[in-house]
Amino acid sequence: MPSxxxxxxxxxxxxxxxxxxxxxxxxxxxxxxxxxxxxxxxxLTVVLIGYVFLPIVWIYAVVDAYRSADKINxxxxxxxxx
Length: 82
Hints:
Radius of gyration: 14 Å
Keywords: Membrane, Transmembrane, Transmembrane helix
Low-confidence stretches: none
Number of domains: 1
Order of helices and strands: HHHH
Protein name: TM2 domain-containing protein
Shape: elongated
Organism: Salinicoccus sesuvii
Oligomer: single chain
Structural class: mainly alpha
Distance between the termini: 9 Å
């Protein structure tokens, strides 16, 4: 049976480094894309637009990591039954 993913750990990892929670969940490409987007947003803070998108993507990454871990666990539970 595949290992269970902790929703809390996924959310905390993504809160610390956006995209890390997705990588923990096994969504490697999604995590790398989020990391790259946040790097671009960080650079865009020089022209102020990054200040708008940085927190939006941060919140999305944390919530997505949490929900993705829950979905992975639910799918594994249905498939393997325990």
